Fold this sequence. Notes:
Residues 79-245 form the F-box associated beta-propeller type domain. The chain is mainly β. Helices cover 0% and strands 48% of the residues.
Amino acid sequence: MGRANKGMFFKVTEPISSKLRYNNNSSIPGSHYIPKRLHDPHTNVNRDNKLLFRQRYMNEDRDLYYFSMLRPDKNGLCFKPEKRYSLTNHRFENHSQPSRILGSLDGILCLEDELESGNIVLWNPVTDELKFLPPSSIEPEEDLTDTYFDSAFGFDARSGDYKVVRCVHHRYFYCDDRPIRLTYQFELYSLKNDSWRPILNPVDVEFPAVSIPTNVNGSCYFDFCFKIVSFDFADEVFSVLPLPPIINYRFLCGIDGSTLDLIDYPRKGDRRRYDLWSWKSSKRCWSNVDSFVVEGVERPLLLWGRDKCFLEGNNLELLLFDLKTRELKPLGIKDTPPWRVKSLSRPENKLVPFVESTVSIKGLSKVG
């Protein structure tokens, strides 16, 4: 099956299993879970759901990045770029590597330096207000070789506080003929207190996460290679989830921010099978709810509503797959290839749900 021309639909021809159940509310494209705090009439939030798509452009000899705000039509089938937001006015992301998007809540983006320096900022693109988080509370030993960070952004509904939880991996070499020693510690940032503090972790974390964490119902989920670790932002406790019987690469995601889902797919091949798994918390097990095969797709980007999945094409074009009609539609929106080959340690998160907001980041903090 060849690729479709720009703006045209094309069918997936291979027989596909579909076990998704739809209801009157969940089938509405873009009907994302909205936290209760946004129903407060005093919050300055526009609850129309949009998307932010990070794109690059070349300036002289380096790549620079900006965010395109995409608004869906009433049918959720077409997405039109409306505005551009950029961090170039700040002393963050002025290098060739993109920042890692840790999450988006109430119009606030949480971004982490992709160069593994551990710098994290909170940014409201609408007001262009930027807040740098303070340095880590965890001090490494003297023989430190490398440091890796796995971070997640969330909201504590009990205290009304935005928080960031982070796993700090320290890698050490004793000498050339000795194996690597890897240590890890967790810490938690509170926007109200504007500070980090170490937190205890009863879960063994042997390797850095293989993908960017996802946020569902006040908890974040890390994929630490052989296990999925969740953290509840209100109770500040960790728990471990088993993995489904998958054999390929996986992508953690959440439908409507209310259910935890996982997409299993191979990293190579032009024709790939994508398996969608959903976590059943009452039974503490995974259920395979859908499978589909498409050509010319590089990787999944985001589940939109309960019946749409955004994908990245091999040519960096943004694609939309309809889980009900089994149609794959190019949206006519493309990223620009990098001017040089980059070897990122993990796939970059480049598409996130977004609501326009004039919420002040500094106004939410007691300090700063």
